[in-house]
Design goal:
- InterPro entries: Ferric-bd.
- Belongs to the bacterial solute-binding protein 1 family.
- One of its GO terms (cellular component) is outer membrane-bounded periplasmic space.
- Keywords: Signal.
- With 343 residues, this protein is of the alpha/beta class.
- It has 2 domains: 153 residues, D-Maltodextrin-Binding Protein, domain 2 (3-Layer(aba) Sandwich), CATH 3.40.190.10; 137 residues, 3-Layer(aba) Sandwich (D-Maltodextrin-Binding Protein, domain 2), CATH 3.40.190.10.
- The protein contains 12 helices and 10 strands.
- Strands 1, 2, 3, 4, 5, 6, 7, 8, 9 and 10 form a 10-stranded mixed sheet that branches.
- Helix 2 links the parallel strand 1 and strand 2.
- Helix 3 packs parallel to helix 4 and helix 6 packs across helix 7.
- The N terminus is likely disordered.
Length: 343
């Protein structure tokens, strides 16, 4: 009898302990999401993206430990690290860099429910990454000297001798090289090289950075510049005044209207998949997308979010049909730039 009582008592204790452990495990699973620290490799500028990471942490309790750097260099690091990478998430400045990582099958497949808010045009065909924001190529111009009607309407019109010495480019910049890579994709290497040689023959002025180019247009040093749309707003804000620079787009479907995207992929090896998806959900939420538009002047990729002030809606940009994830062959682009004399 006494043995039976001891056994019964022990069984009761075991049952209570099991319930407690199960309860604790459930709480631990919940806490793991709420107190996780995500390791994000970010090709986005620290000053630009850190406030968004901070807001995400405030909303979810999930901390973000970011490694900042050039997107192409971070992509190369991920390829080198392979399955041993400590990264949970890669947030790339452009589609080419993230496409290179996706090509090596290092990302998990994202569920359609997490990415369906973004048009298929701005995400990976195999759902390995999704676009977060968009940056359109434009012609920035001196609006005291020209009206939009005076400007080239195709990239081939840039080769007209009347623009000799009047066009600015940033040939070492990643955004310019992605633009050239898109031309290669659309026209082939031979035609792309022919265009580059024509541009070089027109003696473009070369700058290291896009912002420097826009400042030079404002100062009357050069008339036109091939750049991303948001640099005009950025320079204006930095100078604290309206600048003498307008924005013009090319004809519908012209290569000059390339829209590149910042993009996010989640590493297959991450043990924090749920927390990573929460970060993705935050970045693609309408309030965050609206902040990207108003605070950074980038395009939201979501339907129903207005374009940056003074710019046409996303669906009216006349974006060429380019496979963004295949803008990663920059080595070939650099060879063409060197052969043409632009580098």
């Amino acid at each position: 009898m006494r043995l039976r009582s001891i056994f019964a008592a022990g069984l009761a204790v075991l049952t209570i302990s099991s319930c407690t452990i199960a309860s604790n495990n459930s709480a631990t699973d919940q806490d793991q999401t709420e107190t996780s620290t995500l390791t994000v490799y970010s090709g986005r500028n620290e000053n630009f993206i850190s406030p968004f990471f901070d807001e995400f942490t405030a909303q979810t309790g999930i901390k973000v430990e970011a490694r900042f750097g050039d997107s192409a260099e971070l992509a190369a690091l991920l390829l080198e690290e392979g399955k041993n990478s400590p990264a949970d998430v890669f947030l790339s400045q452009d589609a080419g860099a993230i496409g290179a990582v996706a090509a090596q099958d290092l990302f998990k497949t994202l569920d359609s429910s997490a990415i369906s808010v973004v048009s298929e045009q701005f995400r990976d065909l195999n759902s390995k990454w999704v676009g977060i924001t968009g940056r359109s190529r434009i012609v920035a111009y001196n609006n005291k000297k020209y009206s939009a009607a005076d400007l080239p309407k195709t990239i081939d019109e840039l080769l007209d001798p009347k623009w000799s010495g009047k066009i600015a480019i940033a040939p070492t910049n990643a955004s310019f090289q992605s633009f050239i890579t898109a031309i290669v994709q659309l026209r082939g290497e031979e035609k792309a090289l022919e265009w580059l040689k024509g541009l070089n023959a027109n003696k473009p002025q070369k700058f290291e950075k896009n912002a420097q180019m826009v400042e030079a247009i404002d100062q009357g040093v050069v008339d036109l510049g091939l750049t991303n749309h948001y640099y005009v707003a950025e320079v204006s804000e930095n100078l604290g005044r309206e600048i003498n620079v307008g924005i013009s787009f090319f004809n519908n479907q012209d290569a000059g209207n390339l829209l590149n995207v910042s993009a996010l992929g989640i590493l297959q090896t991450s043990e924090k998949q749920e927390a990573s998806l929460k970060l993705l959900g935050y970045l693609l939420s309408k309030p965050t997308q609206e902040k990207f538009v108003t605070e950074t002047y980038e395009y939201s990729l979501l339907d129903g979010v207005v374009a940056p002030v003074g710019l046409p809606p996303l669906d009216q940009l006349g974006i060429p049909n380019v496979r963004l994830g295949q803008l990663s062959d920059v080595a070939k682009t650099q060879e063409l730039l060197i052969t043409s004399g632009l580098l």
